[in-house]
């Protein structure tokens, strides 16, 4: 790896054009993990005023929640450059203008100069989407999870019960995960069934979809972190 002080003006124009036309967030960092270039979607993702506020800086120097992962990410970028290989990171953090916690997959790869020397790293971020075998055979599309509750008339405990029951856990398994009694789960489900005028688990799942809770995950069940994925 050679440190030649990668700058935006030194980058090939076709790389800039490629990133500018990409609808997904992109970034290019030099060998010291300083931002050299970010495209408009990345500016939105990091909730920045513009690219000029970040170029030449490290993640730890910008006002964004992900800066708490600066050292960890710096280590991953270093491995990518050292091993000349691609690495995918599942990053869960508060992103966007609304600082809403979301999960993105950052595909990080080495950035080469014209002589084949590694002079930095390049990454593209995509919103993580989830897809089950049943959704596949039903010709449904992958979905992104949301921590923004579609309604506010349900109690937080009911929402947590809905999450586990909708995703196939039994009442006993749900009770164990929530640290409450099995009877409490059954009673809360019974009340929800009565209010929604439903009578079985199949109608319950359809009701969850109708009110927008099929893609919802309670904030208590999601935490900011980084995972390496294959």
Automatic annotation (TrEMBL):
It holds the Pfam family PAS_4. The keyword Isomerase does not apply. Keywords: DNA-binding, Plasmid. Residues 151-208 form the HTH luxR-type domain. GO terms for biological process: regulation of DNA-templated transcription. It comes from the Bacteria. The keyword DNA-binding applies. GO terms for molecular function: DNA binding. InterPro entries: PAS-like_dom_sf, PAS_4, Sig_transdc_resp-reg_C-effctor, Tscrpt_reg_LuxR_C, WH-like_DNA-bd_sf. Transmembrane segments: none annotated. This is Transcriptional regulator, PAS and GerE domains. It comes from Sodalis praecaptivus.
